[in-house]
Specification:
homodimer, alpha/beta, six-stranded parallel sheet, four-stranded parallel sheet, 11 helices, 14% strand
Chain lengths: 335, 335
DNA sequence: CTGAAAGCGCTAACAA
DNA sequence: TTGTTAGCGCTTTCAG
């Protein structure tokens, strides 16, 4: 292993000068710099990142805790976060929490161990009751809606308005008995609760009476459960002409389930999702959705985190609300 | 920041003893251990991973370089690798290479900087010509088929046999003019080349003459290109009754493109993909595919890497061939 | 079973 | 513009 000392000796300078060259410090004579660079190259010198970390107290890596990277939504989120972090020269290590509360807390403690300079937590398992556990003294940004008045920075998205727009979109296209396939609602500050609120708002505005029997709650946001729920709905002969799904992943399952049950989309039932994942453009029929500008959410989350990393953890928690969203109309809601 | 020294002082022992407790070394009196643990807990002590890294020369993190995590195949691969690595107490940092040769080389140099204990490289951009660049002195495992006789460990999958089985599957179901939607073939050792070989083998075995005009080469393995290619194929009036796609992602696009062109699947054209990604079970029609046991490939890759990390980089490169695969029949190839 | 000594490779702070 | 000093927090080695 070639060290700075080795380079210094070979170049006839002090290790400090090598350090200056490596870190692009300005006040180095051009000829010295050239000499050092030449030797570095010749000896194939590599900085030892661990040593630098120890000295500077930074690791250059942030953690990203998501339930599972193989779910399209989180995969696409991760890709965006990685890209955004790269702009700040930060690498991203991914922790899979499997949506479990314990694993989310584990991810927190890894940063506490100074493995990561900060953590972006796309939380699903933690709830308002865990607020205290988030009172940590290192940079954390929460992505999502579980904890509103937590002690850390937080990026929120237009859940209520988006859900309302999605439901209105169905109503405008003639739907009157609209099913909502939602997750488990615990409190009103989680995704499921907020999107349900948006759904009800839209109904109310159009004078449609809310029918609780049209809300189905699934355990996991998977294509699998979407499929099951759709088949069960058709079998139950409830009578419905529209479905608003809490996420696109679920909606893709619902499309599949309706096809299994021989229900035509969009002629007999219209379907809309939420997230606008890439896959939605390629289903048959293609899936209408709400696009909540995840790109921007990712950028916001990273920049909030970087601000904490650079500026210190102190200061009131900020909540950045990414409010822009758009309705993406595709075949599944055509008239 | 609480250090080992702080804990030692508070517990009335030496830092060394604290270290022993932290690392679960055996020869520590039970009462001493208890005392130290109590103090650690009271002071909320956390090991400083950077310091440990510097001392031990290990980081506890491996790198995973993939083109993009938001493509279903790589997302699912990443999830499996992360899970497999967790069993060895290794974290996974993901580098997105965007399928570019330069970025793949960058990922290599990050490990060279001792940021990672080793690297799993799902390479797309590197080719046999880059063999020399892989002659590095730290643990690397290549996942995929680009470089056969490279200087590093390598996990291969049943590309030829799988592609042959997929094509035979179509032939058995009555297809005679089978399109292959393939990637760019450069050399014969990349995925596209190997799967093309399998395709031709199957044709030959059934006495079907290979028609080069039925092979279409796309730039990128995306749903997008799959869709475009399918629409173009129909427009060109080539006449075909089956399509074998180089990956499921492409196949999903092809299904969509055929739907756009009003071509019924499977009644008029049958379609099969490769990879068996989760989404394939939920398209309409659902997608038949080859399942190459990616689970096992991930486990194999991680365990090869761990062997190098623990056992040193020396020793002949191993090629682990994960050969088991299965044909998953779904609606897109029903008779 | 416990501890003293030494140093991993780097850089902040300061001095020349 | 360059160099000196000192030490980040931990663990390897070896001695008690």
């Amino acid at each position: 292993m070639v060290t700075m000392g080795d380079v210094a000796r070979a170049a006839g300078v002090s290790p400090m000068t090598v350090s200056h060259v490596v870190n692009d410090h300005p006040h180095v004579k051009e000829s010295t710099r050239a000499k050092v660079l030449e030797v570095m190259d010749r000896l194939d010198y590599r900085v030892n990142v661990a040593a630098r970390n120890l000295r500077t107290g930074r690791t250059g890596t942030i953690g990203l805790a998501v339930p599972e990277v193989d779910r399209p939504y989180f995969g696409q989120l991760a890709a965006r976060i990685i890209t955004a972090a790269a702009k700040y020269n930060l690498r991203v290590a991914i922790e899979q929490t499997g949506a479990s509360r314990e694993n989310e807390l584990d991810a927190l403690s890894l940063s506490r161990n100074r493995l990561y300079d900060g953590l972006i937590l796309s939380t699903v398992g933690l709830g308002p009751a865990d607020t205290d556990l988030l009172k940590v003294d290192y940079p954390v940004v929460i992505l999502g809606e579980r904890i509103f008045d937590g002690p850390v920075d937080h990026v929120a998205m237009p859940n209520v308005n988006g859900a309302c727009a999605a439901t209105s979109h169905l109503i405008e296209r003639g739907c009157r008995r609209i099913v909502m396939v939602d997750g488990q609602v615990s409190g009103e500050v989680d995704v499921s609760g907020l999107r349900l609120t948006g759904y009800r708002q839209a109904l109310e505005r159009s004078g449609i009476v809310f029918d609780p029997s049209l809300v189905v709650n699934i355990e996991k946001f998977t294509m699998q459960s979407g499929g099951e729920v759709a088949r069960a709905l058709v079998a139950s002969r409830k009578g419905f002409d529209g479905v608003f799904c809490v996420t696109d992943t679920v909606a893709i399952g619902v499309l599949r389930g309706l096809a299994d049950a021989g229900v035509r989309v969009p002629s007999r039932v219209k379907v809309i999702g939420f997230d606008n994942i890439d896959e939605g453009a390629f289903t048959v029929p293609s899936l209408s959705s709400i696009d909540p500008d995840h790109e921007r959410m990712a950028r916001t989350a990273v920049s909030l985190l970087v601000r904490r990393i650079e500026g210190g953890v102190a200061g009131k928690p900020r909540r950045e609300f990414v409010s822009k969203f758009s309705v993406v109309e595709r075949e599944s809601t055509h008239v």
